[in-house]
Amino acid sequence: MSEHGTNTTWSLLDSAHAALRTAVRGVPEGDWDRPTPCAEWNVTQVLQHAVGDQLGYASSLTGGPGPTENPFAPSGKLTDSPEALLEPALTASAEAWATVDEQVREVRVPLPPGTMTAALGVGACALDAAVHAWDIAVATGQPPPLGDELAGPLLAVARQIVEPVRAFAFAPALEAEEGGPEKGDAAELLRYLGRRPDWTP
Q1: Which sequence ranges are marked TM in the entry (predicted)?
Q2: Quick check: 100 and 61 in contact, CB under 8 A?
Q3: Most exposed residue of 38, 62, 128, 157, measured as fewest CB within 10 angstroms of its CB?
């Protein structure tokens, strides 16, 4: 595997994985306990959740090992370095999706209803990585890694998958503030996922 991870034929997933990898590598050593846009979780817990989700997608596709702890109840305790936790999950996810052709009509995913088209399933996996990259980045003073070019396709994915899982996976959608400065697909995506685009710790 190169420094930049395993590339797939899915450019959206590659971009989302790159965003998450960059955000994790950019966290200052003392910032892992900082609060995040995920109100109940600190930076470590968001990382653990994101890792668990990537392993969940890989496991659904391959039947291989899934996460060792519940992604929705992260412990907040790291037994290894953040990169040592992240990289195997990104590799497993990328390698699993690299075996899936874009024409496949049904793949298993760890979200209701349990199967999706390949394009929607990989989009859901990318959405998870990209949004948690944003959570980690803004919580630790890094530039937000979610621009409109990446957010546009992810917004289309989100509108197809979020509502059935919103109650346990996402906060209620937020309305745009009249005259607010945050515009564009990235801001719209974040609001749709219950996040303030101008969130600060």
Answers
A1: none
A2: yes
A3: 62
Domain range list for the chain: 11-147
Superfamily of domain 11-147: dinb family like domain (1.20.120.450)
Per-residue model confidence as pLDDT tens digits over 26-69: 999 999 999 999 989 999 999 999 999 999 999 999 999 999 88
User: 100 is written with which tokens?
Assistant: 């899936």
| C-alpha span between 10 and 13 (Å, rounded) | 5
SS (H, E, C) 109-123: CCCCCCEECHHHHHH
Q: Is the pTM of this model over 0.85?
A: yes
From CA 77, how far away is CA 82, in angstroms rounded?
11
Q: Whole-angstrom Cα distance, residue 155 to residue 48?
A: 24
